[in-house]
């Protein structure tokens, strides 16, 4: 008997920046509208991780495709 191993959650590129209210804001460019925030950097990243999971679950429940993370980071 083979036991299925839990799959690691795929990583997504995010934008993390300070908001006007002093909180950290985090956006996921590959998941439109997936935005969160937190009082600290760590809290913001934990919150967006949960938001990503829920966002993808909703897409899957609806039978919609999950967009690939095709964001390219370029400095200009």
UniProtKB/TrEMBL annotation:
Name of the molecule in the record: Type II toxin-antitoxin system HicB family antitoxin
Secretion signal span: none
Superkingdom in the source lineage: Bacteria
InterPro entries: HicB-like, TA_system_antitoxin, TTHA1013/TTHA0281-like
Record domain HicB-like antitoxin of toxin-antitoxin system: where: 16-68
